[in-house]
Design goal:
Blueprint: E1 10-13, E2 15-18, E3 21-28, H1 47-75, H2 78-92, H3 94-107, H4 111-127, H5 132-136, H6 138-153, E4 167-171, H7 176-180, E5 187-192, H8 200-207, E6 212-214, H9 219-222, E7 228-232, E8 237-240, H10 244-257, H11 262-265, E9 272-273, E10 279-286, H12 292-297, E11 302-307, H13 310-313, H14 321-332, E12 340-343, H15 370-376, H16 378-391, E13 397-401, H17 407-426, E14 436-441, H18 444-448, H19 450-454, E15 459-462, H20 464-471, H21 490-505, E16 509-512, H22 523-528, E17 533-536, H23 541-550, H24 553-563, H25 569-583, E18 588-590, E19 596-598
Parallel strand pairs: 3-4, 4-5, 5-6, 10-11, 10-17, 11-12, 12-13, 13-14, 14-15, 15-16, 16-17
Antiparallel strand pairs: 1-8, 2-6, 3-7, 7-8, 9-10, 18-19
């Protein structure tokens, strides 16, 4: 598997949008817009025919999209249907069509080049927009242009070629129409120039459990079809033309992070119960309903966090109450899940709604977002609340309010929740008889008044991602500060302990839904903190259950007490790492940088010293 040594080996850094590691041959998806032919029309009498050729290509493109949409309806992937609706609307947009016709008529040029000029015009406009979400919508116009170009050139090739086996698709980005036509049995991963966790590439890759890295910038310019590449969807790295020793290291990492681990999957359907009888409830975090089957297969007993903001930001208009309801019903009606925790939308910050009046903020993560935005945009909020109430008639639903920082916020949110309930009952609309209300604990202020908040709600859910960020004053997206982002920091552990103590004193349930909940290294610490529920990326569930079933609450409390005796985060991490290595030698091993990693090789237990 060694690369052609005449080719340069290099790495690109992007955003890991679907976990896992894959090594294979690249297939460069060429959207055709880089090789558009140009020629002048010989006669002015040819102009009407050229305009008609352009219009025919539009009709053929719309016909193709409608056919693809028909196929997708059977799969139930609603987000993709919405995106295709947008693409059809762009094709029918008078400004888009008329500008292209104007270029043909005034410049006397072929339709392909005229369309390219139209795309360039829109690209120039979108590049001047400061809002990244709006700027990224240029990709939809590009998808439309690429499809029309294919029909103008008569290009009918397969989207994924057979180059001797399975491939990693490398593309600027991918539309639902593109992936719907791919031979997905030949695709083992994705790498794209643009996109993030809400891009269609990310949605598809997570639903199909394929590793993917987005936001690579220029990978389509430096990779050719047939190049060997490594896609690391965990760290967001792609390595092109890797050397044999690099391949060997990533083969090991692939084993470490493989979602299909037969030994761990034996634990997926077992209860997360310690050897001395303490039972933890284990849930899955989801962003899209398409993730539910995989969550159930990996052992999720319920949905501990349904991030509903993606209902808004994966489309170009506001979702209606019925559209909200249809999404929630797909979660609530799942016979394999005991309940679903629906978090009200956490818009703002880096997630912008289609019609959100976006004002540039110096620090958007601490700006108008989450519950603050909900309470300001009451009509928008109540639309969602009514849909959640209606979904509660079909199964057990818990509602979770994000980023609570004070009692007044939770009371106002509960007031609006009651108002929507009364409105629905007055209209004779069926709703559930009761619905538990929860508060996310993710800002230090909420920790300090946890005892007061506990009297207002039925459960807590600790969001460690933001709690760690805010408590330690660290932007977790800032690569220069990642070394300071430490969930085992004594302050974070004390905060979690304080929240659990307050919750249990008030006799309410306390969950954790942040990334910390799904990390095997932290399992015993979280057991010692006496959490009632852990909710995580579903791929992590089998391993977490496996460790819990080998542990006892007595040892976890001793580990926590020792960890809390240290003064620094480094001391805590060092001690916990060494403890877990010795206690679970088959579960962990060290990498080349002396970091502890999950061990997937039963015959190769960990080295017991992970220190440099």
């Amino acid at each position: 598997m060694s690369p052609d040594q005449t080719k340069k080996t290099f790495a690109l850094k992007g955003l890991g949008v679907s976990p896992g590691v894959v090594i294979g041959k690249a297939y460069l998806f060429d959207p055709l817009d880089t090789n558009v032919s140009f020629y002048k029309l010989k006669k002015s009498s040819s102009i009407p025919k050229e305009i008609e050729r352009f219009k025919e290509a539009l009709k053929e493109s719309e016909k193709q999209l409608l056919e693809i949409q028909g196929k997708l309806k059977k799969s139930g992937i609603k987000e993709a249907l919405y995106i295709i609706d947008v693409h059809i609307l762009i094709m029918k947009d008078k400004k888009f069509v008329n500008r292209t016709i104007k270029y043909i008529r005034r410049m006397g040029i072929n339709a392909e080049w005229a369309l390219r000029l139209t795309l360039d015009h829109y690209k120039e406009i979108f590049e001047q927009v400061s809002d990244p979400y709006i700027r990224d919508r240029m990709s939809d116009i590009q998808y439309v242009g690429q499809r029309v170009l294919r029909n103008l050139t008569g290009e009918k090739r397969e989207i994924v070629l057979d180059i001797g086996g399975q491939v990693i698709v490398v593309a600027p980005d991918l539309s639902p129409a593109d992936t719907a036509q791919m031979k997905m049995d030949k695709v083992i991963g994705f790498a794209t120039d643009i996109g993030g966790r809400t891009s269609h590439t990310a949605i598809v890759s997570r639903a199909m459990e394929l590793p993917a890295v987005a936001g690579l910038g220029n990978i389509t310019q430096v990779v050719k079809t047939g190049d060997e590449i490594i896609v690391d969807g965990i760290s967001g790295v792609v390595i092109v033309n890797p050397y044999p020793d690099v391949i060997k290291r990533y083969e090991e990492k692939r084993l470490h992070y493989s979602a299909i681990d037969d030994e761990n999957m034996k634990y997926a359907k077992l209860p997360a119960e310690t050897k001395d009888g303490y039972l933890l409830q284990i849930g899955g975090n989801i962003e899209f309903v398409e993730e539910i089957p995989s969550a159930v297969a990996h052992g999720a007993e319920h949905i501990g966090l349904y991030r509903t903001e993606f209902i808004y930001i994966s489309r170009h208009d506001l979702p209606s109450e019925e559209e909200h309801l249809n999404n929630y019903l797909q979660v609530v009606k799942s016979k394999d899940l005991r309940w679903a925790t629906i978090r009200t939308f956490d818009l703002g910050g880096d997630k912008i709604a289609p019609d959100q009046r976006h004002v540039k903020e110096l620090n958007p993560q601490m700006g108008l977002r989450a519950i603050r935005y909900c309470l300001k945009e009451v009509d928008l909020f109540k639309t969602q609340l009514r849909a959640i109430w209606r979904a509660s008639a079909a199964g057990k639903v818990r509602i979770l309010f994000p980023m609570i920082s004070g009692v007044e916020e939770i009371r106002e949110a509960k007031k609006l929740l009651q108002e929507t309930k009364d409105e629905l009952l007055a209209k004779g609309i069926e709703i559930g008889s009761d619905m538990e209300v929860g508060a996310m604990i993710e800002v230090p202020a909420a920790v300090e008044i946890a005892d007061q908040l506990a009297r207002e709600v039925d459960f807590f859910s600790i969001g460690t991602n933001d709690l760690t960020q805010y408590a330690l004053a660290i932007d977790r997206a800032n690569e220069r500060l990642t070394y300071l982002y430490e969930p085992l920091h004594p302050a974070i552990l004390r905060m979690i302990k304080k929240v659990v103590t307050a919750a249990h004193a008030a006799k309410i349930h306390v969950a954790m839904c942040g990334e910390m909940a799904g990390d095997p290294l932290y399992v015993l610490i979280l057991l010692g903190l006496q959490l009632d529920e852990l909710s995580m990326n579903h791929l992590a569930i089998p391993r977490i259950k496996r460790i819990i079933r080998q542990a006892t609450t007595a040892e976890s409390k001793e580990l926590l007490e020792k960890a809390l005796s240290f003064n620094t985060a480094q001391e805590v991490r060092g001690y916990v790492q060494q403890y877990m290595l010795k206690r679970f030698p088959d579960e962990f091993q060290c990498d080349d940088e002396h970091n502890i990693l999950p061990n997937h090789k039963k015959s190769s237990p960990a080295k017991l010293d992970c220190r440099k």
